[in-house]
Design goal:
This protein is mainly alpha-helical. Helices cover 78% and strands 0% of the residues. It has two helices and no strands. The relative contact order is 0.19.
Length: 67
């Protein structure tokens, strides 16, 4: 199945964005488990950014126009 270069580039961008936000969240959580004091609002911001990026990727992957 051929996927246009623009669509492929967009999916790659969304994957990279989702990975980035997930990794930032994981690093912040690691600080929590390491006993460092954390800002709850910041943790929520990281969680929200990660969830939103994952949702954008999922929506793009399920888009019937993608293939």
């Amino acid at each position: 199945m051929y996927m246009g270069g623009t669509k492929r580039a967009r999916l790659d961008e969304l994957r990279t964005e989702a990975n980035y936000h997930r990794q930032r969240l994981d690093l912040y959580r690691a600080k929590l488990y390491g006993g460092r004091p954390l800002n709850a609002a910041r943790l929520e911001d990281f969680q929200r950014a990660s969830d939103e990026a994952a949702a954008r990727l999922a929506a793009a992957l399920s888009d019937p126009r993608s293939g």
